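Hey all, quick one. A colleague (J.T.) asked me to put the zinc ion job into the tracker so the inputs and the structure tokens live in one place instead of scattered across chat threads. No bug as far as I know, just bookkeeping. Sequence used:
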Amino acid sequence: MGAPAAFGSLSLSPRARESVLDRETRDGFAVTAARGRFAPSPTGRLHFGSLVAALGSWLFARSAGASWIVRMEDLDREREVAGAAAGILAALDAFGLAGDEPVVAQSARTPLYAAALARLERDGHAYRCWCSRADLEPFGGIHPRACVAPARDRSPAWRLHVGSARIGFDDRVQGAQHQDLAREVGDFVIWRADGACAYQLAVVVDDAAQGIGEVVRGADLLDSTPRQILLQRLLGLPLPTYAHLPLALGADGRKLSKHEAALAVDARDPLPALRAALHFLGQPASTERNVHMLLSRASREFDALRIPRTATAPPAFAAARNATS
Ligand SMILES: [Zn+2]
């Protein structure tokens, strides 16, 4: 618990604070410009959309000579599917996309997140909330600046004061982004009433602790990014750069990751899916007949400027699993 305690009690200049974070809370890693990660949730098998996110983040890191890691985002225990984490890791191996370091699971890192929450509370940025969804209906679902719950008879969640923050950032694929957090999001949950750390806080703490310099992921997380940037600022963490890849949509126009039955990519025959994922990301076609040679060539030829903002998944990989498969 020594490291999280230090994390929660820092009041140093940004430079000094960064060096302390380096020493004590970053799992031993300083932030490296292009160090990347793939962070799947264990809610099903690896589908084309998650393969694109894994390959895309791997290419950004590898083409810059940086390391790349896998993090299992398993805080939502209700959505977790037994065996899914092991299945995803085995599939990544088959696709030649094994991380450079042991996989870290968020479920084992609650003390680190709790220290970050304690710091936000100490600095006056976080407050308890007992609101139900119905309580927020009169406000259009956007939480006002203080809790409005009529009853406080259960465990609270924690929300972050967003103040009047307008957040802008330059995404390497999607271009300039802006969000008025107070108007579009409101004070958001950083710790859930069920006792689990919320995604927005956990991902920010982990990216800093694991030294991630470049966050590459699907565009479904584009509108979460300003919340994460605000958290990074309030916690005094380094800001990574961002690249949000085009989403792979299914035949019905919904993103594949929303399909519980999204067709899994076939890890026994990885080359067709890898080639399709490269094409989806706008990268040159490859005729290599070996996974590692294909990846090695793709990382040498990788050009982030060729990635389209939107793209359509090839039909063979976009279908939902049917009753017979
Ligand atoms: Zn509330």
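Adding what we noticed when we looked at it: Residues 1-26, 321-325 have pLDDT under 50 and may be disordered. Residues 2-127+202-318 form a domain with the Rossmann fold fold (CATH 3.40.50.620).
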